[in-house]
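Chain A, query sequence.
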Amino acid sequence: MEYDFPNDKRKRTLTATIFVDPNGNEVKVKGDIQYSVPFQVEMVEGKPPSDEAILQVAKKELPSTAEVINSRIDEVKKVWYTSSFTFTFSLGLTNAHVKVGNTTQVTIDPIKREAIVDLLKKEFGVEGGNVEIKEREEGYTLTYLDENWNGFMELNKVGVVLSKELKITQKHAVSLVEQKVNGKALLVTGEFRVYAEDDTTLYRCDVDPHTGDVSCKRVGIPSGKVKENSETYFINNMFSRPTTLDVSFTEEGWIVKISGETGVAEYLVKHDGSSIKVKFLRVNEKFGEMWGKKEFPGCEVKSSIKENSIEVNASDGNFNHRVILSLEGKVKEKEHSITDSYALRLAYNTMGLSSGCREELKRWKGYILVDLSCNGKHHIAKLENDGKVKETLDVVDITSLLGSLKLGNVVSAGYKDKNIVVKVEEEKHYRYIKFNMQGEKLKEEICDRGFLSKIKCVKQDLEYRPSTQDPTELIMS
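Chain A, predicted structure.
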């Protein structure tokens, strides 16, 4: 086209090329700066518009003062124009559809279950088993379980693995340990520590949860040895053979529940058998009897149940033993005392006598007082409960002494301060006499009788008043 500019006298020309669709509308094609990539493609076929119509479209691109010098119209047989375009991409497990226009939209086809299952088995290297699939907004969550393994996997929407984990089952971990030690499992903790035993050893094994690798360490004795040791311990400490015995395993140690004729017990045995701790014990009357026979060999033993204890009495002829046991078999009280017969024998031997005396025994504050009366004397021995001689005393018998002295009317006679004091009433006065323990006279006083005798003789009455008639009281202090 050639045209004249109003303010320019020189002739200038402008050449332009435009594309018009069959409806006479201008379109942009590749090479044009306004060209956009077509996505949804539509092909338009039809007769081109008239030359005049095309020229009118072209003039819109020119200044209003332009004058058309000449023109050429070439018919394009086919013209494509677009508003949007959709791409389809293959992503292995599914297809993605991308629609681009004024905005971009992506649509992903759901992955088929068969494809997901195949992917999981390939990733985990497993066959069979149960696969559970849960679809979520971001993709898929998969769980897998068979007899030996269980797994978890996360996929995004197009089947890319985001995370995965395959672990051994507890049952399979136990099976692997039992194969390793050729024994049986006792306890499983965590993932996966397995305690197991064979005929000779207790093992602690660790199983790698992801690979199934097993490593074991010897840590103790088996249950059979625990039973054997516990039975021996029960016999030695409960004095009877077990009638029931049950062993269970814990991380703390072996728990042994055992019972017999003498009671029931529960022990905690260390894994290696190095110690036995009593957790519970309840003994009975039979235990008291058997305990007494062990504690006092050769003695006659009797046992009885009290309110919350067991009383054990034993005697060997020389000593009586009394022990109070708790229901756990522990000693609460213990006391020993010599028998009456042994006390008499000790007293005879101590006092240098053979036999034939009048015998009296008195137990006082943990002591036994033995009075052997013969030959006009009291031979007294103060014995401790363990048979030791604490003190001895020979004192004349008052009756014998008075009979030998023929003193007449005796008002009072007795023992005082390890002496013998006597008050005798005579015709005109009172006679006061003091003897030592052997009956030898130490002192004698006279106080006249009369109306005022009670006042006049008060000093003598006080001094010669007996404190006891019992000679054993002389060594009670």
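Confidence is low (pLDDT under 50) at residues 1-14, 33-45. Residues 157 and 177 are 40 Å apart (CA to CA).
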